[in-house]
């Protein structure tokens, strides 16, 4: 019944999907946090840059960004990401770059909205009892902000997992790329679709349930 | 700007802020200068590459038809997905377990898998078991994928919209003797639709962005696809990417602004219950919807 799987390495394709997700998640968390720090900083120029970046990147389709990394950055500007002879590795790294640039805008917005859920009264109360600036931030505000950020960040992570399929557009051999190949060459359209759909359900649903539950549990009840 | 993170600046903080501003400005200027140099280095700033965009031919033969296809697919998907989403969302709130559970399963399933997979699958299905011409097929496949995905996202929007209404609405409807179905169709749904409008418009942004997938993977002749034909003709890869990105930014920015204008208008309006579903309520925070842990969307 599952003989259509023969000759195709489905697990390897999903492993590449997972690798894309993990690398992009780490990268976009770092870059997104930096952007969020800029967006809430007291320096107007930094705020402006953060706002501009988020508004521009959020409105461009991810597909445009990913295809540009390949046709523009690699082919025209010669950005080979340190892998000029390994085409597969180069595609992978370019896809991660595109995913990080795109996802960071959403990470930034999630973190910022998390910070905004902390009421102004918390900071005022902290100052009123004589805490210094760093104490206010360290002991009162950030702990509350981090906890309310988990839920929104989970959604970004799940969306990122699904967005890694866009890397197929530049020939990264992840799950969607393999599915396209298989579905065109094999007869069992429905079964192939079901296998890949199941793969993504397995990747996204438990993450959503677990982190969603955690986010709800840890969120500050107001 | 007052923020929970810092006080109004005193003299020292002001000095520091100015210093940081200057430092950041220099860094930014260096970055821009470096980008400009890079572009110049690869001859991407030559007027010959940009000139086509000042002629009407580039727009009428490539970009505008592409944009029209993008908008057509997005509008069709939204129009089909809305009633389907409303149906799924209401089914999910049914009192009957045998309606609620399957509807919930369908919604969670289609939200959990990437929209690209749905498009690829629909495309292959149409190849094998329909006689849609190969010219129209990409469009059908793109719309099918987008409808399946967005109907399940909109189902959650509808549910959140109905749940956002004050409880008194349902109670009052029951008190004057309306049945469950009547309460839904003549009391809750009309009010919820108003409350949902901003969220629906901002979902349109997501749909517009997702049509680009069909351009690359299925050969649907939308804007990104039109770009590659244009670039093949004028040999201006980088400028064409920049122009297409700008078009997407403008279109989506208009939609986003419209959504927030609608939201503000609804919040201010004296009529109605004051229940508004901001775009972010559903996008970023499905945890706000009771009973939903969310499978992430809108990104």
Automatic annotation (TrEMBL), chain A:
Domain of life: Bacteria
Membrane-crossing residue ranges in chain numbering: 12-38, 59-79, 91-108, 156-178, 190-214
Subcellular location: Cell membrane
Gene Ontology terms: cellular component: ATP-binding cassette (ABC) transporter complex
Membrane-topology descriptor: Multi-pass membrane protein
Any one GO molecular function term: transmembrane transporter activity
InterPro entries with a match to the protein in the record: AA_ABC_transptr_permease_3TM (IPR010065), ArtM/GltK/GlnP/TcyL/YhdX-like (IPR043429), MetI-like (IPR000515), MetI-like_sf (IPR035906)
UniProt KW Ribosomal protein keyword: no
Cited Pfam families: BPD_transp_1 (PF00528)
GO BP of this protein: amino acid transport
Domain ABC transmembrane type-1, first and last residues per copy: 14-211
Keywords: Amino-acid transport, Cell membrane, Membrane, Transmembrane, Transmembrane helix, Transport
CDD domains xref list: TM_PBP2 (cd06261)
Family membership: Belongs to the binding-protein-dependent transport system permease family. HisMQ subfamily.
Name of the protein in question: Amino acid ABC transporter permease
Organism: Streptomyces phaeoluteigriseus
Automatic annotation (TrEMBL), chain B:
PANTHER family in the record: AMINO ACID ABC TRANSPORTER PERMEASE, MEMBRANE COMPONENT OF AMINO ACID ABC TRANSPORTER
Protein name: Amino acid ABC transporter permease
Domain ABC transmembrane type-1: 67-255
Family to which the UniProt record says this protein belongs: Belongs to the binding-protein-dependent transport system permease family.
Source organism superkingdom: Bacteria
Gene source species: Streptomyces phaeoluteigriseus
Any GO MF annotation of the entry: transmembrane transporter activity
Major place of residence: membrane
Transmembrane segment boundaries: 18-36, 73-91, 103-122, 142-166, 187-208, 237-262
Annotated keywords: Cell membrane, Membrane, Transmembrane, Transmembrane helix, Transport
A single GO BP: amino acid transport
Membrane topology summary: Multi-pass membrane protein
Compartments where found: Cell membrane
Cellular component GO terms, alphabetical: ATP-binding cassette (ABC) transporter complex
């Amino acid at each position: 019944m599952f003989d259509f799987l023969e000759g195709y390495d489905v697990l390897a394709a999903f492993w590449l999907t997972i690798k894309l997700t993990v690398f992009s998640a780490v990268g976009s968390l770092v870059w997104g946090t930096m952007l969020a720090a800029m967006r809430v900083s007291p320096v107007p120029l930094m705020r402006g840059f953060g706002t501009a970046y988020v508004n521009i990147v959020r409105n461009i389709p991810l597909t445009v960004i990913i295809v540009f990394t390949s046709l523009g950055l690699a082919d025209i500007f010669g950005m080979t990401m340190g892998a000029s002879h390994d085409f597969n590795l180069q595609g992978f790294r370019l896809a991660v770059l595109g995913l990080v640039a795109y996802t960071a805008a959403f990470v930034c917005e999630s973190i910022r909205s998390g910070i905004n859920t902390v009421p102004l009264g918390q900071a005022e109360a902290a100052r009123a009892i004589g805490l210094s600036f760093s104490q206010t931030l360290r002991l009162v505000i950030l702990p509350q902000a981090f906890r309310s950020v988990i839920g929104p960040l989970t959604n970004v992570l799940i969306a990122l997992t699904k967005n890694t399929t866009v890397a197929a557009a530049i020939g990264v051999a992840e799950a969607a790329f393999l599915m396209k190949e298989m579905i065109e060459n094999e007869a069992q359209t429905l079964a192939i679709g079901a296998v890949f759909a199941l793969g993504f359900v397995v990747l996204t649903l438990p993450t959503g349930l677990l982190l969603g539950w955690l986010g709800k549990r840890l969120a500050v009840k107001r | 700007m007052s923020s929970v993170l810092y006080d109004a600046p005193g003299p020292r903080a002001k000095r520091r802020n100015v210093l940081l501003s200057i430092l950041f400005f220099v860094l930014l200027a260096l970055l821009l200068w470096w980008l400009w140099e890079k572009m110049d280095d690869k001859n991407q700033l030559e007027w010959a590459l940009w000139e086509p965009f000042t002629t009407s031919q580039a727009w009428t033969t490539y970009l505008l038809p592409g944009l029209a296809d993008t908008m057509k697919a997005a509008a069709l998907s939204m129009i089909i997905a809305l009633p389907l989403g409303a149906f799924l969302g209401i089914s999910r709130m049914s009192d009957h377990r045998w309606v609620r559970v399957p509807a919930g399963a369908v919604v969670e399933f289609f939200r959990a898998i990437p929209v690209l997979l749905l498009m690829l699958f629909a495309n292959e299905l149409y190849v094998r078991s329909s006689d849609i011409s190969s010219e129209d097929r990409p469009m059908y496949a793109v719309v099918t994928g987008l409808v399946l995905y967005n109907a399940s996202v909109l189902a959650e929007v509808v549910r959140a919209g109905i749940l956002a209404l004050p409880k008194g609405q349902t109670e009052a409807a029951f008190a004057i003797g309306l049945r469950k179905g009547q309460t839904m169709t003549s009391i809750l749904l009309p009010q919820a639709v108003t409350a949902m409008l901003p969220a629906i418009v901002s979902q349109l942004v997501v749909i517009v962005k997702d049509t680009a997938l069909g351009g690359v993977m299925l050969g649907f002749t939308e804007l990104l696809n039109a770009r590659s034909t244009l670039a093949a003709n004028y040999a201006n890869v980088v400028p064409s990417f920049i122009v297409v990105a700008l078009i997407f930014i403008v279109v989506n920015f208009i939609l986003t602004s419209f959504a927030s204008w609608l939201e503000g208008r609804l919040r201010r309006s004296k009529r109605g219950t004051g229940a508004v579903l901001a775009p972010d309520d559903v996008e970023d925070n499905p945890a706000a919807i009771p009973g939903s842990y969310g499978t992430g969307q809108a990104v």
